[in-house]
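Sequence, structure tokens passed on for absentees:
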Amino acid sequence: HVCRRAIVNGFVRFFFFGRLEEEKGVLRIINAFKSLDADDQKRIGQIDFVGSGPRLTYYKDLSVDSGLPFKFHGTLPREGVHAIYRQSHVLLLPSTASEGFPKVIAEAMNYGCIPIVSDISAIGYYIKNAQQGYLLNPITVLELKKKIQDVLAITGTSYKQLLKQQRPIVEKFTFEHYNEQLKQFILKRFET
């Protein structure tokens, strides 16, 4: 687990990683941040978007007049993505697309990021609301705004407890766990 400063000790940095398109929730993210009150907006360190898509210019244009620190990185090499993980506090994935369980969630949690993610596909099986992260249901701008406000209000103690509860999930997505599961599966096949 990567150690990081507590959220309450400064600005909160958010990020999105994926295809920049409507069903992934990019417009919901922009509109949710724009709808925050001035005091909440002052706590935002940066909102990073990593990825590309045909509407990149449209999203950039929407964010320009907001006065908020939106930054569009485009596609980054793996090292750049991991640098974003290290600098961020919160992963945003307000998607309506069928997701399974995106590895970006486990990767972000490994770096101590709080996921604010849609309660779709298998995501709700791993993330329990306000325990390992925050689930969006319904997947709306208003619900995303509320979850952002929840994160902005989190205490240092609650943040540490949330990170502690993420560990078992993160460990399920390691190569060691995968190899052990595969080994057990193969051994069971030979027992019968």
